[in-house]
Amino acid sequence: MNSRITDRIATGVFYTIAAIMVALLLYLFYFILSNGLPQVTWDFLTSPSSSYQAGGGIRDQLFNSLYILFITMIITVPLGVCGGIYMAEYAKPGKITNFIRTCIEMLASLPSIVVGLFGLLIFVNITGWGYTIIGGALALTIFNIPVMVRVTEDAIRSVPKEQKEASLALGITRWHTIKTVILPYAFPGILTGAILASGRVFGEAAALLYTAGLSTPTLDYGNWNPFAENSPLNIFRPAETLAVHIWSVNTQGLIPDVREVANGASAVLVIAVLVFNLLARWLGSVIHKKLTAGK
Amino acid sequence: MQVAAAKETIFQVNDLNLWYDDFHALKDVSLEALNNEIYAIIGPSGCGKSTFIKTLNLMINMEPGVKMTGEINYKNKNLLDSRVDLVDLRRKVGMIFQKGNPFPQSIYDNIVYGPKIHGIKKKSELDEIVETTLKDVALWDEVKDRLKSSAMGLSGGQQQRLCIARALATKPDVVLMDEPTSALDPISTLKIEELMSELKKKYCIVIVTHNMQQASRISDKTAFFLHGRVVESAETGKIFSNPEDKRTEDYISGRFG
């Protein structure tokens, strides 16, 4: 076989694989959205879920998902960024750094159900909190931190060496250089990474089953006191998220419209994750342009 | 021969040896750079000239696996044996790189970056620094109306001059230049060279260049580096007209390198 034919075959194979991936994704979207979107009405999004009757919504689950995401990011982003700065700027190449890197990667690849059970042990039982939002957020933190560390490290490493040299050569300390030159430059990358990580956190179910629980107390959205039992902002209350809700109505739902609710909730979830991805791309490119344009 | 004008010694380097891990990059380098003079370092690629200039403000410490022996005396303080304050040293020993590397901020912010962090807060003082340094590098007239616009919009030559202004803003004694015009067109190069002749009235300048015409045009002293050694160092006029070493002669007459 001559090399031109081999080349054509290789090209063909790659195109086919790419086409299969795109087709799969499109079919998945089509399937989920065509089944789910008809269910997604304003009423569906704003009414509480019901236990026995048809016509329940996903108001609390949607709020819980966003709120847990928010709390998780508040914990993860500072820790992850600091870790990334350490890995990129301070860690000396060697055995210890390699060990730390291996640990981070292992943490990232832990099965989420295992993280959930670990969370059950630590954040639910040992602390005595029971199923709580904070417990769920901490469990999500466990596999979100490696991602943030990685993303930050990569973003910092991609800052041109000249920029760093310029600052250090002016007699600026390392920390000041990181703060005033490196982090602003790396910011778009870090932000994009954070939003992408959000998408994953938003869709996570297994780790939350045993940490944030399968139920939500009756919430009063007029009560903004974070210490009140029925306040949506209380972080020490159980909270069923959207992804967990999909799982639970499917496996143990007693409502007659299980399919409709599950389809609608899935559509909302998929759309949210899609929005996160598009937002990440858009924001990243906008900020990148702002930084580099000779305005 | 000028005997009277005893210029202050800024750098006195004695028997400097440098290794990158096992690679012996500088061998027994000894040089003396005086105030108000331009010291040119020439030599073929890979001869260690860039490595050498980076030792003068210890930027070399950023590279992994560097070991040094010998002495680099900056104003009678050995940078290698005492615990030097890098922040202080680099404020006093400014550095210009091959390619202009302004920060992606406004022209004004680029210049006040150093002074601000070193503690100057008053707006009027900062304004004055911006104006004097930009005038020093002959950029003031070109940019005075757009100090707040991004430095990335300047031409290559303007960016390089802005970087020089930025280095001058921390009030250094020495300006190190690592092939500052290698990425510039002839007109910008000429401007930077004129600027250097102006700057040497106030500063000691050490410049690495592989443009021999440049070295002969602007410098007072020249050192020729080859394979990590100083083959010859002397008054620029002497090096170019009457070199002692055969290898220097071969290099400056363009027979290799």
Automatic annotation (TrEMBL), chain A:
CDD domains: TM_PBP2. It holds the Pfam family BPD_transp_1. InterPro entries: MetI-like (IPR000515), MetI-like_sf (IPR035906), Phosphate_PstA (IPR005672). Belongs to the binding-protein-dependent transport system permease family. CysTW subfamily. Residues 62-280 form the ABC transmembrane type-1 domain. PANTHER family: ABC TRANSPORTER PERMEASE PROTEIN YQGI-RELATED, PHOSPHATE TRANSPORT SYSTEM PERMEASE PROTEIN PSTA-RELATED. GO terms for biological process: phosphate ion transmembrane transport. NCBIfam families: 3a0107s02c (TIGR00974). The chain crosses the membrane at residues 12-33, 66-87, 99-123, 129-149, 182-202, 261-280. Keywords: Cell membrane, Membrane, Transmembrane, Transmembrane helix, Transport. The keyword Transport applies. GO terms for molecular function: phosphate transmembrane transporter activity. It is found in: Cell membrane. It comes from the Bacteria. One of its GO terms (cellular component) is plasma membrane. This is Phosphate transport system permease protein PstA. Its main location: membrane. It is a multi-pass membrane protein.
Automatic annotation (TrEMBL), chain B:
GO terms for cellular component: membrane. Residues 11-252 form the ABC transporter domain. Keywords: ATP-binding, Nucleotide-binding, Transport. It comes from the Bacteria. One of its GO terms (molecular function) is phosphate transmembrane transporter activity. It holds the Pfam family ABC_tran. InterPro entries: AAA+_ATPase, ABC_transporter-like_ATP-bd, ABC_transporter-like_CS, P-loop_NTPase, PstB-like. GO terms for biological process: phosphate ion transmembrane transport. SMART domains: AAA (SM00382). SUPFAM superfamilies: P-loop containing nucleoside triphosphate hydrolases. This is Phosphate ABC transporter ATP-binding protein. The lineage of its organism: Bacteria, Bacillati, Bacillota, Bacilli, Bacillales. The gene is pstB.
